[in-house]
Amino acid sequence: MSFTSRVREDLVAAQRRDPAARSLLEIALLYPGLHAIWAHRLWHRLWRRGFRFAARAGSQATRWITGIEIHPGAVIGRRFFIDHGMGVVIGETAEIGDDVMLYHGVTLGGRTHDAGKRHPTLGDGVAVGAGAKVLGPIEIGARSAIGANAVVTRSCPADTVLIGIPAKARAKQSGEDTRAVLMAPDYSI
């Protein structure tokens, strides 16, 4: 996929997920979540080629500008969108599938200082509400939704809703809309 096709895909994904988006130009110029992911792609490329210091320095510069910290070692899929973004932290061994959406204040963090896989893996289509913490080398199944301020420390299968501290899981109801789950007051703390 060409660079311009990938940028356009990101812009359209943001427009589809954000009801406040007015134009692709506005999104391209004013959405720090997109700026962070575009920069991450460059830093990730450097990281994979062994330019670790340059990649880390670039990711820190991006953090200062956007308020979003994405480690250059994190693996991120297509059409990833961070809404608002301030305070998002994505750790080095995190893996994020396609069509994933995070709100502000989300942490995909570790729970240990041990080497190896320390951060979560989010399947395709996962949505994570504002302030949620997803911690450790756990797997969140595809199309799952994590409510605002939930603290998730255990893996879950696909099509799961996780809410609370510590997060409790339940199966997503048939036809349940992820956006509605993230915004419903009974799903937040």
From TrEMBL:
Pfam families per the UniProt record, alphabetical: Hexapep (PF00132)
The reaction(s) this protein catalyses: L-serine + acetyl-CoA = O-acetyl-L-serine + CoA
Pathway: Amino-acid biosynthesis; L-cysteine biosynthesis; L-cysteine from L-serine: step 1/2
Presence of keyword DNA-binding: no
Database matches in InterPro entries: Hexapep, LbH_SAT, Ser_AcTrfase_N_sf, Ser_O-AcTrfase, Serine_acetyltransferase, Trimer_LpxA-like_sf
Keyword Hydrolase attached: no
EC nos: 2.3.1.30
Top-level lineage group: Bacteria
UniProt feature coiled coil, ranges: none
Keywords: Acyltransferase, Amino-acid biosynthesis, Cysteine biosynthesis, Transferase
The family this protein is said to belong to: Belongs to the transferase hexapeptide repeat family.
Official protein name in the record: Serine acetyltransferase
Organism: Microbacterium gilvum
Gene name in the database record: cysE
